[in-house]
Amino acid sequence: MKPVQVECKNIELAYGATQVLKGITLTIAPGEFFALLGPSGSGKSTLLRLIAGFNFAQSGQLMVDGADITRVPPWQRNIGMVFQNYALWPHMTVEKNVAFGLEERKLPRAEIVRKVKDVLALVGLTDFAQRRPNQLSGGQQQRVALARTLAVEPKVLLLDEPLSNLDAKLRVQMRQELKSLQRRLGITTIFVTHDQEEALTTCDRIAVMDQGVIQQIGTPMELYDLPVNRFVANFVGTINFIEGEIEHAQSGSTFSSTLLGKISLPETTLDHSSKRVALALRPHTIRISADNAAPADATSHNINVPGNILEREFLGEFVRYRIDANGTELIVDQSHQPGSEIFATGRNVTLGISAHALRLVA
Ligand code: ADP
User: Fold this and answer.
1) Is the shortest distance between the CB of 17 and ligand 1 below 6 Å?
2) Ligand 1 centre and the CA of 13: distance in Å?
3) Alpha helix (H) ranges present in 105-195?
4) Residues 161, 192: Cα–Cα separation, whole Å
5) HSE of 142, CA atoms in CB hemisphere, 13 A
6) Model pLDDT, residue 171
7) Is 60 exceeded by the pLDDT of residue 269?
8) Would the pTM of this model clear 0.85, i.e. be above it?
9) Residue 182 CB–ligand 1 contact under 6 Å
10) What is the CATH number of domain 283-354?
């Protein structure tokens, strides 16, 4: 089947006086694996259910493959949804669960048998066809739910927190399986999750939502490296903010803060006109050295500031420090290898900050 485009145009949805979706506009490319990422209550599931046809917008348009389906009932949309709790029939075998949607559609018996066989092979459950859901692991139940949805060959696949009922290890395995299955099928897929790692690792592009508003749409790397505001910077990965004021002059812009003093900004970060700004800085871009490091040369893009170690956590691959730097608290991650230096709590250190790692956010 040819992959389809999904388009939301200025969608507004309210429950009573509560506006839940505010001006949602996005275009999902044919065959794309797209995530809706945001904290609980940000409106992700409401938007997903709206695409499925279980919720209706007060205004705006939903287009699939160029056709307006805003008022089309769910059963005429040919959009498949996998629910968080799988919603399998406990009294039916795997085979029957998967055949259910096909029987509803009154397909010929031979065709149902063939499709069930194919889709069970696709998710690797051929040998489990006669089991009931309670005789399967969480990951296998998840695959049955997926097989049941895929059996009816939907144009669009919707996944509502599909991995949240699995334990940490299985979640990682299943997200890889999901990604490779999506790639093989090439079906336009929308994945709802509150877990940024899950979204970053599996999806082509992500819409970050907060309070019913899309904050930013981008590839995982764009969201991580070039967040447009504090919310995105904070939600996608761990971040430090250095509060300050910006001044624009003909010769360039300068940023003044208690921590860094007055610094000129590299051009790459200059895309905001607001005065109340912060510099965002990822923990692993800061270097810690012993407290007698030389002050940075004013012409280089490295800034050295003094710090005092408040706390440290050993995480194996890296050590995470909480550091007081002239009254600003910073999180700093240092990669760890056998024999690398560990700084003790209370120790005075020098922090090396590269101006290229700084990102101006409004
Ligand atoms: P998310 O999926 O991001 O956790 P939801 O889309 O489930 O968020 O919910 C968004 C907001 O809409 C929440 O504040 C929630 O309380 C509210 N909400 C969701 N469903 C209903 C409903 N049926 N009636 C009233 N409010 C609802």
Assistant:
1) no
2) 11
3) 109-122, 138-151, 168-185
4) 5
5) 20
6) 86
7) no
8) yes
9) no
10) 2.40.50.140
